[in-house]
Amino acid sequence: MRRALSLLLLSLLGCAGRASAPSPAPPAKADAPVVVEPAHVRVVVPVEDRACGNVALPPIRSVIVVPAAFVERALAPVVHAACSCSRRGETLRLSALIVPEAGVVTAHAVDDEAADACVQLTLDGRFEAFELKSDCIDCGPKRFAVFHGSPPPPPPRSRITYPLTLVH
User: Fold this and answer.
1) What does the DSSP 8-state code read for residue 63?
2) Beta bridge partners of 165
3) Considering just the CA atoms, what is the radius of gyration of the chain in Å?
4) Is the CB of residue 158 less than 8 Å from the CB of residue 132?
5) Would you tell me how many other CB atoms lie within 10 Å of the CB of residue 57?
6) Alpha carbons 85 and 46: distance in angstroms, whole number
7) Which stretch of DSSP H or E encloses residue 29?
8) Cα–Cα distance for residue pair 43/114, rounded to 1 Å
9) Phi, psi at residue 125, to the nearest 5°?
10) Strands 91-99 and 104-109
11) In this structure, is the dihedral angle defined by the CA atoms of residues 34, 39, 40 and 45, taken in order, positive or negative?
């Protein structure tokens, strides 16, 4: 047993002794120019496309029921910007954030920086505001924790995150 252990130890030490040291790098010349390759940057310029005006959204199904006309109104600026910033045959993945009560929508292209920059430049994220209402009758808080005589606090703003893929 001792002999096997000593042979194993010697073989391990022998392997470590045989490892070659890395060769030193050649000295750099002080007057040699440094060449840096420019990064490839794709620039997307928005274009007007007649097909963009005929984009129809698919039926939207979720736990919260928002009338289709309201969602179409909110997403119309996003679809227009995305369509203007893509070309035929391209697919653009977006994430839109809708604030219905403020009448504001923002969007970002999730995997294409150039398309995202174009969308940010092109998107006019305003639409006619709408309110999300509940069909809950006589539910919710009865008293507000405010000073006597003061009006109740305004309702919180809703935020709807809507992922979409535009295939142009």
Assistant:
1) S
2) 93
3) 31
4) yes
5) 13
6) 5
7) none
8) 5
9) -80, 40
10) antiparallel
11) negative
**Local structure of 118: helix, strand or coil:** helix
**92, burial (CB in 10 Å: exposed 0-12, middle 13-18, buried 19+):** buried
What is the chain's pLDDT, residue by residue, as a tens digit (168 residues)?
A: 444 444 444 444 444 444 444 555 555 555 655 555 555 666 667 777 766 767 666 666 556 678 888 888 999 999 999 999 988 889 999 999 999 999 999 999 999 999 999 999 999 999 999 888 766 666 665 555 567 777 776 667 788 998 999 887
Q: Which two tokens stand for residue 162?
A: 């809507």
**Whole-Å CA distances, 130 to 11, 57, 74:** 78, 19, 9
Going by C-alpha positions, the residue among 106, 76, 102 that lies closest to residue 94 is: 106
Provide the 3-class DSSP secondary structure of residue 164: strand
Are 116 and 108 in contact by the 8 Å Cβ rule? The answer is yes
Q: Is 83 left (phi over 0), alpha (psi -120 to 50) or beta?
A: alpha
What secondary structure letter does DSSP report for 129?
-
Neighbouring CB atoms inside 10 A of 82's CB total 28
CA distance 155 to 39: 48
